[in-house]
Design goal:
Number of helices: 8
Strand order of the largest sheet: 1-2
Strand content: 5-15%
Radius of gyration: 17 Å
């Protein structure tokens, strides 16, 4: 569906496509994670505004995954020997500048070649994500 939209539209930047359905994408991912019981979503109102509080059900799993992704970035095993899902998550985490995975710019610069190797399969997506984060001025923790 998205590929058809891209092929049938005039040339646009990756940033435009990432931002196109941003709100809908967040809702879809949230709902799927809630249905899979990975997160719990608590809905309430503060004054007149609807507010959602999202919590991980098993926080130890996120810590373990962050350790695996951080370890993949820092090295140890050759990139080719890492699980594909960990490589992709490492590429996206560095593109999004997740401080829980790569705490400093210095470390990212030291590992730039390794990060580029992990980013190769998803390069257009990682580039679009990086540009979107840079444009928003937000840095995720």
């Amino acid at each position: 569906m998205v590929w058809e939209q891209i092929s049938n539209s005039p040339p646009r930047s990756w940033w435009w496509w990432v931002q196109k359905h941003n709100g809908k994408a967040v809702r879809v991912v949230r709902d799927e994670l809630a249905a899979a019981r990975v997160i719990s979503v608590e809905r309430r109102r503060i004054l007149l505004f609807p507010v959602e509080r999202i919590r991980l059900r098993k926080t130890y799993l996120s810590r373990r995954l962050a350790e695996r992704v951080g370890g993949a970035i820092r090295g140890g095993r050759p990139v080719g020997h890492l699980d594909q899902d960990v490589r992709v998550l490492a590429a996206l985490a560095t593109a999004a500048r997740l401080k829980t995975v790569v705490p400093s710019w210095r470390e990212m610069r030291l590992r730039q070649d390794r990060i580029q190797q992990m980013s190769a399969p998803v390069e257009p997506i990682a580039t679009a994500l990086r540009k979107s984060v840079e444009a928003s001025g937000e840095y995720t923790t």
